[in-house]
Design brief:
The complex is a heterodimer. Chain A is of the alpha+beta class. Chain A has helices at 2-18, 22-25, 53-61, 75-90, 108-128, 153-159; strands at residues 63-65, 94-101, 136-142, 161-169. In chain A, helix 4 packs across helix 5. In chain B, the strands form seven sheets. In chain B, strands 1, 2, 3, 4, 5, 6, 7 and 8 form an eight-stranded mixed beta sheet that branches. A four-stranded antiparallel beta sheet of chain B has the order 11-10-9-32, with no helix packed on it. Chain B has a four-stranded antiparallel beta sheet with strand order 12-13-14-15, with no helix packed on it. The chains are: A alpha+beta, B mainly beta.
Chain lengths: 172, 442
């Protein structure tokens, strides 16, 4: 069992390094996909290794949250993105796809556009902190990929997010 | 499973015409839908007479589909076969009007079916019982046996049309997104079905998210959005061959919300670049694009007027989602929605007189209609989440998706009359969303 687990993590790391398709990465968040780089998924490296994606996700924080129908960064969100910018500048091999998401309380097309605004707000802030824009891409999932599924604000607040998903390194 | 149907519309020979049409228009068999129907019209639809050995079962099935189409409108009430005094054993024999009058049948549909190998032929007549006369002439349809439901729909369309004076909508198809799985792991694939949920055919796999398929005016092609590349991109799919191709694949942008112009050559859609979303048009053959809106706001969900001259769309340029109308080539837009709440997903009616929309107000979602100048707004539905209306070919019925609340939420297709009556779930094998109603089939 222990062997299986470590193999799984190794495979997850390989998948992470090889794949640049954000649909594979963020799309399955919380959905039971063991390779998804999401809130509940396995992720490469150890959180105790500051250069690992696991550290980025859990210690730095890979996501910022938004108010209803807004794409303005909160002070907490900017602080998280400050940390992301520092990490990305120190770990220059990584690129990232920033996923924008909306809660379910909106129409489908509008939420795709709203998710784009949120992802772009995070992207623009990272660029303002010195991260080369060539290392960042954005994608919006609208309301298609919630991580929390209850129908109240406790869940909606977690779903209104922009998640910085690390992708294959520049040198790989 | 694209069955071949070669329906022909032929007058049945040697059948007498109704004495006068004015009789029918002023008589009890006329349903004026716009005035609001309180009491559904009683109609009898006996099993069609089998003209060949072994076609009795087909005769019964045809009658069931014809009756289901008519009662499904909410305008008709079917009389049970157990109440019949007369039986229809011979399509050519005179109708015993007194027997049908006695059970208060106001309309009677009789028919005969002939199955020969792979071919089916259906004849039918419609009677105005209280006038004691046929309403319109007898007709027959021919096709292949596997297209039998289409023939039933065609019969029902003629009956509906003669009694209401409106075009029918039963022999039509709907493209939609078929959904399975919980909200946080939902799988979506494109599907097309008959308007009543029968004959579902899947058009894509569920590996990638697909959104909002939209039929062309003739129903031959479907525009939709897929995440196949990892980013939302617009695609066109040929319904017959199920071949699809991406229409725009510009790195650094996302494209979605496509919809055909009536000419079938032009489409409108949204492009997100940076934080901004605007509406563009594209010539589907050349790929040439034109930007139609140019504001920092979200502009999306465009839909053409039936004459192709104007586009209705949603924009949050005022600070919240509202509906606007602009010329098809772009230019100054006029806001048409002014009620309380947010308005999105506008769709122009096939008659050109109404706009259907989704409205969010006080925590509820509604599907509604308004005139094209925004007046006479009328909400038809209300729930936790109603969204994405589409018009029946005759402009009388709207189909939309309703998602239920909570962790076990599921999306189901519904239809509702534009009067707000007759809300009904459309039965599909899996969950459904984003319906787009195609044309009445030839």
């Amino acid at each position: 069992m222990k062997l299986r687990t470590s193999l799984l993590i190794t495979f997850a790391a390989l998948t992470l390094a090889a794949c640049t398709n954000p649909n594979r990465f963020g799309g399955g968040e919380g959905g039971g996909d063991p390779f998804a780089n999401g809130a509940n998924g396995a992720i490469a490296g150890s959180v105790s290794d500051p250069s690992s994606p696991a550290y980025f996700q859990q210690a730095v924080g890979d996501r910022v949250l938004f108010a209803v129908d807004q794409s303005t960064l909160s002070p907490e969100g900017r602080a998280t993105l400050d940390g992301q910018a520092v990490w990305l500048l120190q770990n220059a091999d990584y690129t990232a796809v920033i996923e924008g998401h909306a809660d379910e309380r909106g129409t489908r097309e509008y939420n795709v556009a709203l998710g784009a605004r949120r992802a772009d707000a995070a992207r623009a802030y990272l660029v303002s902190q010195g991260v080369p824009s060539s290392r960042l891409q954005v994608v919006s999932y609208g309301k298609e990929r919630p991580i929390e599924i209850c129908s109240d604000e406790a869940c909606y607040g977690q779903n209104r997010r922009a998640v910085t998903v690390l992708a294959g390194g520049l040198s790989s | 499973m694209m069955y071949r149907v070669l329906c022909t519309l032929l007058a049945v020979g040697a059948i007498t015409f109704a004495p006068t049409l004015t009789r029918a228009q002023s008589g009890p068999l006329r349903i004026e839908i716009t005035e609001g129907v309180i009491e559904p019209l009683p109609i009898a639809v006996p099993d069609l007479v089998a003209e060949t050995a072994g076609s009795a079962e087909m005769g019964a099935q045809l009658a069931r589909v014809i009756a289901a189409d008519l009662t499904g409108t909410g305008l008709f009430r079917e009389l049970p076969g157990s109440a019949f005094i007369s039986q229809i054993g011979d399509f050519g024999a005179p109708v015993q009007y007194a027997d049908w009058k006695a059970i208060n049948a106001q309309a009677l549909v009789t028919g005969a079916v002939n199955v020969s190998g792979n071919q089916i032929n259906v004849k039918f007549r419609l009677y105005d019982v209280f006038s004691g006369a046929e309403l319109g002439e007898g007709l027959q349809f021919s096709g292949t046996v596997d297209g039998w439901r289409r023939i039933a729909h065609k019969v029902a369309d003629v009956v509906y049309s003669r009694i209401t004076g409106e075009g029918g909508y039963f022999d039509s198809r709907v493209v939609y997104v078929s959904e399975t799985g919980p909200k946080d792991n939902r799988r979506k694939r494109l599907a097309v079905m008959d308007y009543d949920g029968a004959n579902v055919q899947y058009l894509t796999g569920s590996e990638d998210i697909v959104l909002a398929p939209r039929f062309s005016k003739t129903g031959d092609r479907v525009l939709y959005t897929s995440y196949e590349t990892g980013f939302p991109r617009i695609y066109v799919l040929d319904v017959g061959s199920v071949q699809q191709r991406v229409l725009e694949n510009n790195v650094g942008t996302m494209s979605f919300a496509p919809r055909f112009a009536p000419d079938g050559q032009t489409l409108v859609y949204s492009v997100s670049q940076g934080s901004n979303t605007d509406i563009y048009s594209m010539n589907i053959n050349s790929g040439a694009t034109t930007r139609l809106t140019n504001t920092p706001a979200i502009e999306t969900a465009p839909s053409f007027s039936p004459d192709g001259g104007r586009i209705v769309f949603e924009s949050d340029r005022s600070g919240s989602q509202q509906l606007y109308v602009m010329p098809a080539g772009g230019g100054e837009a006029t806001r048409i929605s002014f009620g309380e709440g947010r308005y999105g997903t506008p769709v122009w009616s096939p008659r050109g007189d109404l706009i259907a929309f989704t409205k969010q107000s006080k925590g509820r979602f509604h599907v509604g209609v308004m005139r094209i100048d925004g007046s006479e707004e009328r909400l038809l539905t209300a729930s936790f989440l109603d969204e994405g209306p589409t018009w029946s070919p005759n402009g009388r019925v709207i189909m939309f998706a309703r998602e239920t609340q909570g962790a076990d939420g599921r999306s189901t297709l519904y239809s509702v009359d534009i009067t707000g009556r007759n809300l009904r779930a459309v039965r599909t094998p899996e969950g459904g969303s984003d319906p787009s109603w195609g044309p009445l089939q030839p």
